[in-house]
Amino acid sequence: MIRVGVLALVLAAVWLSGSVYLMNLAVVTALFALPALGLSLLMGYTGQISLGHAALVGLGAYGTAILAQQFGWSPWLTMPVAIAAVMMVAWLIGWLVFRLRGHYLAMATLAFGIIAHVGFVELRDLTGGQDGLSGIPPLAVLGVELITDRAILPVAWIVCVGALVLAENLVRSPAGLAMRTVAESEAVAGSIGIAPDALKRRIMALSGGYAALGGALYAHYLGYISPSPFDVGFSLKLLLMVALGGFAGIWSVLFGVGFVVLTGEALKPFGHYDVVIYGALLVIVMVWCPRGLLAGLELAFQALRRRLRPAAGGAA
Amino acid sequence: MVELAQYLASGLVVGAIYGLIAIGFTAVYNATGIVNFAQGDFSMLGALMTIALLAAGVPLLLAIGLAVLAVGLLGSVIERVALRPVGADVLRGIIITIGVGVSLQGVAVIVWGTDAQPLRAFSGERPIGLAGVTIPPQALWVVGTAAVLMCALYFFLTRTYFGKAFRACALNPFAASLMGIPTARMRLASFFLSGLIGAVAGIIIAPIALMQYDSGIFLGIKGFVACIIGGFGNPIGAALGGLLLGLLEALATGYLSSGYKNAIAFVVLLVFLFVRPGGIFGELEALKR
Fold first, then answer.
1. Chain B residues with CB inside 8 Å of A243's CB?
2. pLDDT tens digits along B36-91
3. pLDDT confidence of residue A219
């Protein structure tokens, strides 16, 4: 509860500062946090790797955009429909890929991500190909269209915090314990009456729902989508966010997302260097702090203190 | 009929390219059980380094030698620095090799930019025609190199003492170390070997497939699919898997549509993953289960 309060205070400060730049960063963070949360539930808690989550985000974005444009429905209707559809797709993908493990699962999900991206580019009649879709209607609340960062920020973050709380409740529930058991050992999970494959599929569907929600909000917020943001690079960025957060930890995922968004901004003047930094960060975090950047720094700090203390005692 | 023959010929050439990449995957897999997701980027790096050295006035053979050695050393550095601390954790290993691949692409963008770099073909550009089918002369280099490398690696892994020690490390590192095999050094050597093979593959195919910073991703994925088809445990199987994939792609491009070329590879991947995850010739995988 305190964390929600602190978050609300920070966001309120950003909102009141009136800085378009800060508000934009806050909105982007919320939109990235949704798919990253979904990935954390799948990877961190259930132990299943996915390198194709960008495709689920893209499916959510394209789904709601196409429904809104072709049928002229309100975004409030198209978003749930698109998200439900993506959840079904994610469940079906789970049905296909979760008989695989390790490297095979990683490659199968990567393949799915690439197939979806090829689809976004090649199905020109539906998706507009490389040019993408423009003129996607914005969300509207009480007749006010949410076009500016100032208007979308509260909505995006209310959704995001809702998703956070839901995820937190889930991982604390018996289902959350079952997820962790599956991640530790599927044989043990099976022996105590948990059906690992069914659980993995359900978490995959939920994870897809989170991703699609992020994508759908993104589409209505920008009003324009093209295939390039939903490529493999974005899947890897989501992976980095979750890894920085230590995989399993709902709030630390938010830290990972914020960290990546801010580093991305800090590195913007240097052009392509961000890719190198992202890759190196991924390696460093995985090698030295598998529980996330914060936990890794804390461990390093403790080790430093332990090393300093005997020296101080000897001096006294 | 000529049309079909042309499709088959170009399919074989592309397939040999995939096969070359696939052989590099098997070199690491047979010693460590790791699938190196940066394998395609090794090839990209080898090719771009050769091109840069050539531009600096180094003769072709020396440039190739230097680039191949550099990538091989890079491979062993990556093993020592990034992969050894992780041990047998598959998930972390995957993510680390992905991170390495991303970093290598980033470095390539900074050094060489985003434009595709050409490499002069080794024996001229004049296409060879035979019964109405034309192939570039470089294709012979590709097919020849793939054949030589796959046989050499197969012979090494199955007939030499060193190679058998390699495979023992992948099957059961603990038992291997009890038998006095220095497993850590074997892992280092396998990454060196895969760096060498990856770089050679990249250099040989560069004149046919233009190389740029992100060429590695697709090469790597196709090579992986080839390994799935042929079986990770066996370089000959992996190379033949590459040929099969190349043929399927060429036929699909010729008779269906070029847009779905990449989809074919992944449909094949999914089919094999579900029906026969050990690949056609996958002996090691069968043993591990």
1. 95
2. 889 999 999 999 999 999 988 889 889 999 999 999 999 999 999 888 888 777 78
3. 92
Kindly tell me the sign of the dihedral angle through the C-alpha atoms of B11, B276, B263, A233.
negative
Most confident of A186-200, A282-296, B22-36: A186-200
Question: Of B30, B25, B56, B55, which Cα lies nearest the Cα of B43?
Answer: B25
Nearest-CA distance A3 → chain B (Å): 30
Q: Which of B35, B84, B96, B98 is best to mutate for the A interface (most A CBs within 10 A)? A: B98
Six-digit token pair at A124?
Answer: 């020109």
Structure tokens at A206: 């939920």
Output the pLDDT for position B282: 56
User: A-chain residues within 8 Å CB-CB of B269?
Assistant: 107-108, 111
Mean pLDDT to the nearest integer, A28-34: 93
Complex ipTM value: 0.82
Partner-chain contact B99 A47, CB within 8 Å: no
A262 touches chain B (CB under 8 A): no
Model's pTM, two decimal places? Answer: 0.86
Q: Chain B within 8 Å of A163 (Cβ-Cβ)?
A: no
Q: Are B226 and B18 in contact (CB under 8 A)?
A: yes
Q: How far apart are CA B174 and CA B170, in angstroms?
A: 10
Q: Which residues pair with A140 in a beta bridge?
A: A145
Task: Tell me the C-alpha distance between A160 and A291, whole Å.
Answer: 23
What residues in B contact A280, CB-CB < 8 Å? 99, 103
Query: How far apart are the C-alpha atoms of A195 and A64, rounded to whole Å?
Result: 33
Interface test mutation site (partner B, options A100, A118, A234, A283, max chain B beta carbons within 10 A) = A283
Choose, out of A46, A53, A103, A118, the residue to mutate when testing the contact with B (most B CBs < 10 Å).
A103
Q: How far is B110 from chain A (nearest CA, A)?
A: 6
Query: Six-digit token pair at A178?
Result: 């079952």
Q: Is the dihedral of CA B187, B190, B196, B202 positive or negative?
A: negative
Nearest in space to B11 (alpha carbons), one of B261, B266, B263: B261
Phi, psi of B155 (to 5 degrees): -60, -45
| Per-residue pLDDT reduced to its tens digit, A208-237 | 999 999 999 999 998 889 998 898 889 989
Find the angle CA(A142)-CA(A145)-CA(A146) to the nearest 5 degrees. 110
Query: pLDDT tier at B287 (50, 70, 90 boundaries)?
Result: very low
Does residue A51 surpass a pLDDT of 80? yes
| pLDDT band with cut points at 50, 70 and 90 for residue B259 | low
Q: Of residues A72 and B275, which shows the higher confidence score?
A: A72
CA A152 remoteness from chain centre:
19
- What value does the mean pLDDT take over residues B220-231? 86
- The yes-or-no verdict on residue B279 having pLDDT over 50 is yes
Contacts B273 to A, Cβ<8 Å? 100, 104, 107-108
| Sequence-separated (6 or more) residues with CB below 8 Å from residue B202 | B42, B43, B44, B45, B46, B47, B211, B219
**CA-based nearest distance B57→chain A, Å:** 28
Integer CA distances (angstroms), B145 to B63, B75, B150, in order: 17, 21, 8
Q: Which range among A140-149, A213-222, B102-111, B185-194 shows the weakest confidence by mean pLDDT?
A: A140-149
- Binary contact (A107, B90; C-beta < 8 A): no
Q: Report yes or no: A279 at the B interface, CB cutoff 8 Å.
A: yes
